[in-house]
Amino acid sequence: MKKFIYAFVIFLMISSCKNGKKHDAQSIVDNAIEVAGGKIFQASNISFEFRGKLYKAIRNEGIFQFERQFEDSLGQIKDILSNDGFKRVVNDKPYVVHDSMAAKYSRSVNSVHYFSVLPYGLNDAAVNKALIGETSISDKAYYKIKVYFDEVGGGDDFEDVFVYWIGKDDFKVDYIAYSYMDNETEFGLRFREAYNERYVGGLRFVDYKNYKPEDNLTNVINLDSLFIAKKLKLLSKIENENIEVN
């Protein structure tokens, strides 16, 4: 009888191990993307307003066109970033932009569109992901995912490092931190807190409170500790308005 009970307990333990799924970085990100809208992103038209400019993103299974429209002293400006590169149109006519400025405008346009749909994009070919731990913020449990990029295909800012705090129960991205090089010598750190969650056309959108540490000596993966200790300075709010999805 004792042998039977022992064998039954071992069976239950083995079954539990088989059925209990342990998440790795890839499965966590996959779940986060699915919760945020999943495949809807892949073929979508998204428009929104950010700081007085109109942004439009057209995605179709790897083919993309990101736009930024605004008015300045030159007239009506439309910046277009696509698979074919960057171009600027002024008053409906092509406008020649120096290579260095084109790179700057490209990064600016891409950055706004990139953050607007996170975590979509984290499965791109040049993206590397690692589960670096678990933590708790405001009594909510999170997976802590480090994201970094290959030099080939990783864009001009391939040296940037991101950290994502993804809810263990709901797989929602609630916090993001990143390190970046503002130029060849200036290093920066940012921490973003998501708020104002809403779903539009099946896609999850959030706004962010944008924070920075007092100095740049902290490792980006430890910025959550400073946030919890209320040692981060609020710089700005990242608010996308009038979102439409088709």
* Global outline: globular
Q: Mean pLDDT across all residues, rounded?
A: 89
Secondary structure category:
alpha+beta
CATH topology: outer membrane lipoprotein receptor (LolB), chain A
The number of strands is: 14
Number of helices: 4
Q: So, CATH architecture?
A: Clam
CATH class: Mainly Beta
The share of residues in extended strands comes to: over 45%
Please, could you describe this protein's structure?
The protein has 246 residues and is of the alpha+beta class. The protein has one domain: outer membrane lipoprotein receptor (LolB), chain A (Clam). It has helices at 2-19, 25-36, 99-116, 223-228; strands at 43-50, 53-60, 63-72, 75-82, 85-90, 93-95, 127-137, 140-149, 161-167, 173-181, 187-200, 203-213, 232-238, 241-245. A 7-stranded antiparallel beta sheet has the order 6-5-4-3-2-1-14, with helices on one face. The longest helix has 18 residues, at 2-19. The model is unreliable at 1-19 (pLDDT under 50).
Topology:
Elements: H1 2-19, H2 25-36, E1 43-50, E2 53-60, E3 63-72, E4 75-82, E5 85-90, E6 93-95, H3 99-116, E7 127-137, E8 140-149, E9 161-167, E10 173-181, E11 187-200, E12 203-213, H4 223-228, E13 232-238, E14 241-245
Antiparallel strand pairs: 1-2, 1-14, 2-3, 3-4, 4-5, 5-6, 7-8, 8-9, 9-10, 10-11, 11-12, 12-13
